[in-house]
Design goal:
about 170 residues, mainly alpha
């Protein structure tokens, strides 16, 4: 298998995992207070930019089947894309690993709160501030409170293998 074929397969696999996990936990994955377990995968962006594409595609696929239709396909996917890009660039801007990981974990909370909060306000009629706070709460719990410690454990044990996996 060529290097580019391998990357395409890995991108497809991660996208599929994101979509399947989101849909499996569909009851808690959509809406104002959402605990999108698949967002744990956002930390993969710290291993390579290919994961930005994978996570964005996975979110797109999950939102196609999700209950909020075209607005969520566009804006929910955009929120994931922006969050993934910001997470990818965070280590390049912040060299202190402890602060870098914490700041990186906050991007999905901030970006989703603003974009999905706006989306829920504009297309569902929910109050923006309340929606933003609710979305932020779910993202913060999943990504920062659960995801950050989980990432540290996985990274300490398998980080070099994950990083090398896509670059082989």
């Amino acid at each position: 298998m060529t290097k580019s074929s391998r990357k395409i397969v890995i991108i497809g696999l991660i996208a599929a995992i994101y979509a399947v996990v989101t849909l499996t936990f569909g009851v808690i994955s959509y809406g104002p207070i959402q605990f999108r377990v698949s967002e744990l995968l956002m930390f993969l962006t710290l291993f390579g930019k290919e994961y930005i594409v994978a996570l964005t595609l996975g979110c797109f696929l999950a939102n196609i089947i999700g209950p909020f239709g075209v607005p969520d396909i566009i804006f929910g996917t955009l929120a994931t894309l922006i969050s993934a890009i910001l997470m990818y660039y965070t280590p390049k801007l912040i060299k202190n690993n402890r602060y870098m990981l914490f700041v990186a974990s906050l991007w999905p909370t901030i970006v989703n709160a603003l974009i999905v909060g706006w989306e829920l306000n504009k297309f569902v009629g929910l109050p923006f501030v309340l929606s933003a706070i609710e979305v932020a709460f779910g993202e913060f719990v999943v990504v920062t409170i659960i995801g950050l410690p989980l990432f540290k454990v996985v990274n300490n044990k398998y980080g070099s293998k994950i990083k090398n996996f896509i670059s082989k």
